[in-house]
Design goal:
alpha+beta
């Protein structure tokens, strides 16, 4: 049940609309289902000997405005309180008596007409459709004072949640006032007239969010906005300092032919210039350039190396969320920027799902909880590095490291869902779980080729070597996991990865235990896939399984000395450099 509150100054004009044919949805049988005293004249069902709807409507408007006229100059300019209340499309149709109860409870909850107060404001509830009513009230009490209506929207929302529970309706998630402003009805109707896919407000919000991902300075942020094709207008104080900004879509104009500008704060609460500055200030170090991390082989493309770096940083962000660290809220914002960066630079096959994941997680980045020590250098640097590295290919090392990063991001967003759930943030927790589902779909698309190649290599291992690695897997995995599908077939890719790690000089048992101990595995949809990517990152193995593994770095796990271990008879074959796998010119 969704309440929508507006205020106005024309009682008669609103009644004409409510009892009229409707501008969009057809108004069928408009009639009163409730009023302040139960005896208000009803223009829709006038039972007088000579009914005239226009006359009755004028009488109703005069009765509602009586106290407004008596109050004179002390009456509020916008004295009309208008609340539409709509049930979910899957809910049953409420009766007129039930809608009467809903209306009375809402005007009581917002302090317009408290139950038992003879001086409560005058109000009516009009029904002209099966799924909603309109409550119209005039905000002058019987003692000619204004009602105290602070936080009327929050109070109406809370009362609707209680009504849903008592009437057996679909129970919506309570909001906390941190959500982005939704498009107005006029904006939605304009979308249909112009043939757009979404309202300009939503297009602009996504574009601004993407421009902000990893931006180090205001100048870089505004430059990205202009590069994205947006119209940008910076508002300056008399001193010349920027105090805000407005954006507009090219071609989006009003009736006068002027661009329709949106301030950042009207797109989302965290997109105002002061809050953007605060986010950049949290990035304490001077990060005006992209990440310089060169983890991995120098012949790997820059997008692949940046994705490996981001995977490790995302793992640490998940650990902060699980530990309830003071920095956790700031990590959520950083994760949102990382998702935006990956969505912008992902291969075409995964771009749609990753874009949906980034849009969904936007809601999870905002709550009333603020980080006490907000240091987002690492995660914003990872987002910046991915943006500056450019678009990743959908094959080779680029494709493999994309799958590696997405596998980790699924677990990170599930950690975010747990963090929000523990604090009662229902909408944010739901958004985090939605994000995880989009990421899982994108992961399956990205991981199909590299995981198939790894499984084939695992099946091609000599029988003795394969049995050795399967024994390592069985001994390392928790007991409950051994009976959840860890069959020989599911372990093919994991066995191949252990073989590659051993060939590169690592001890498979030590490395596998290290991967298991990194983070929980209970939320993993496919535990073996998660372990494969952890192992390949820890051992600096190529994400593309056709490439030869490299020797370990000095900080890598030391191999155990064993003179009796038989050298593997089958190793990953090195492949010649494929020009298609080279990084594109940037």
């Amino acid at each position: 049940m969704v309440p929508k509150i507006r205020r106005g100054s024309r009682t008669h004009g609103l009644l004409v609309y409510l009892y009229g044919p409707g501008k969009r949805d057809e108004h069928i049988d408009p009639h009163l289902v409730g009023s302040w005293d139960g005896f208000a004249p009803d223009p829709g069902r006038d039972t007088s000997p000579d009914p005239d709807p226009k006359v009755t409507l004028a009488r109703l408007a005069a009765a509602l405005d009586l106290r407004v006229k008596q109050a004179g100059a002390t009456a509020p300019t916008e004295h009309v309180w208008h609340c539409s209340v709509r049930t979910d499309p899957g809910d049953r149709n409420l009766t007129d008596a039930e809608w009467n109860t809903v209306a009375r409870r809402l005007v009581h909850a917002v302090n317009l007409a408290p139950e038992g107060d003879p001086d409560g404001c005058r109000w009516v509830a009009v029904r002209h459709a099966d799924d909603h009513i309109h409550i119209l009230a005039t905000m002058v009490r019987g003692d000619l004072r204004r009602p105290r209506m602070n936080y009327d929207f929050k109070k109406a929302q809370a009362e609707c949640r209680r009504i849903e529970k008592e009437m057996g309706l679909r129970r919506l998630k309570p909001g906390d006032g941190t959500g982005a402003k939704t498009p107005t009805s006029a904006e939605r109707f304009k979308v249909e007239r112009t043939g757009r896919t979404e309202p300009p407000r939503e297009t602009l919000r996504e574009a601004v969010r993407q421009a902000l991902a990893g931006a180090a300075t205001e100048e870089e942020f505004f430059a990205r906005l202009r590069e994205a094709g947006l119209r940008v207008k910076v508002r300056n104080a008399p001193s010349g300092d920027a105090i805000g900004y407005n954006v507009a879509l090219p071609g989006d104009r009003n009736r006068k032919g002027e661009p329709i500008w949106f301030p950042g704060s009207k797109l989302a609460p965290d997109l105002s210039l002061p809050k953007i500055r605060r986010r950049m200030a949290d990035d304490i170090a001077d990060q005006t350039t992209a990440s310089t991390d060169t983890s991995g082989r120098p012949d790997w493309s820059r997008p692949a190396r940046e994705r490996r770096t981001a995977t490790g940083i995302a793992e640490r962000a998940a650990a902060l969320l699980d530990s309830n660290d003071d920095e956790a809220p700031a990590q959520l914002v950083g994760i949102g920027e990382l998702l935006d960066a990956v969505a912008q630079t992902s291969p075409a096959a995964t771009r749609t799902e990753l874009g949906a994941a980034a849009r969904a997680f936007e809601r999870a980045t905002r709550s009333h909880v603020r980080a006490e020590h907000a240091d987002t250098r690492a995660i914003r640097s990872a987002a910046r590095g991915i943006i500056h590295a450019g678009t990743a290919l959908g094959r080779g090392e680029d494709g493999g490291t994309t799958a590696m990063l997405l596998s980790t991001l699924v677990l990170v967003t599930l950690a975010a869902a747990r963090w929000h759930s523990a604090r009662g943030h229902a909408q944010q927790a739901h958004a985090s779980r939605q994000t995880a589902e989009h990421l899982r779909t994108a992961y399956r698309q990205a991981a199909t080729t590299p995981m198939r190649a790894l499984r084939n290599q695992g099946r091609a291992l000599p029988e003795a070597e394969r049995r050795t690695h399967e024994a390592t897997i069985r001994s390392a995995l928790p007991e409950q996991r051994r009976h959840e599908g860890s069959t020989s077939a599911k372990n093919d890719a994991l066995a191949a990865t252990l073989a590659h790690a051993e060939q590169a000089g690592h001890d498979p048992k030590t490395l596998l235990q290290q991967a298991i101990d990194m983070r929980e595995l209970d939320t993993a949809e496919d535990m073996t896939d998660v372990l494969v990517w952890r192992l390949r990152r820890l051992a600096q193995l190529p994400a593309h399984p056709g490439e030869a593994p490299r020797r370990p770095q000095p900080t890598a796990s030391r191999p155990t000395s064993s003179t009796n271990r038989k050298a593997p008879t089958t190793a990953a074959r090195p492949i010649t450099s494929d020009p298609r796998n080279r990084p594109p010119r940037r």
